[in-house]
Design goal:
The structure is a single chain. By secondary structure, this protein is an all-alpha fold. Among the domains are: 89-129; 137-179. 43% of the residues lie in helices and 2% in strands. A two-stranded antiparallel ribbon has the order 1-2. A hairpin with a 6-residue loop joins strand 1 (2-3) and strand 2. It starts with a strand and ends with a helix.
Length: 179
Amino acid sequence: MSKHPDDPITYVEQTEPEDRQRRPPAGIQGWGADLDPAVRPAVPKERTPQRFVDAHWDDIEPQRPRDVKVFHSNERPGLTPVYGTAQPPSGLSGLIRHAAFRHSENDLRHWLMLLFADRVNVVEGIIDDLAHGHVPNIFREMGGPAEWKYNRQGFIRKAVIAGGVVGLLLYLNSRRSRR
């Protein structure tokens, strides 16, 4: 032990033989990754994986003939081999989606129009249900019973806020109708 002239704390000078620096310390994961390749422990085993020579996915045939409108990015030359046709675009939401796909995917208008089309599609679905004589149970379909069971505090908070907003709107409407 010796004293360092600038530091009052005593220290032990640590000098290690050169061969000990090349041996991996026990329990240190990844030791030696930044050493010279001649002394790295796993150099003979390290290699770049081979590239796929016969990539089978380059030649996938389309899933079936397209019989409905399928939207795809205008940044891509054609359709992908697999696409969905279960919910073809229809109505006002379909027109909004058609307009959205005129814009590039990096354009904010593209995504905002798609979000708006989803909301319009929800309203169209409710109107379609009512037209076919089915009254939707919006409370159950929006997860009300599960919210009440698993997040009762959050449910009560949302109900109080919604009640306050509705009460405020009714109050403002009644004031406007008195004038």
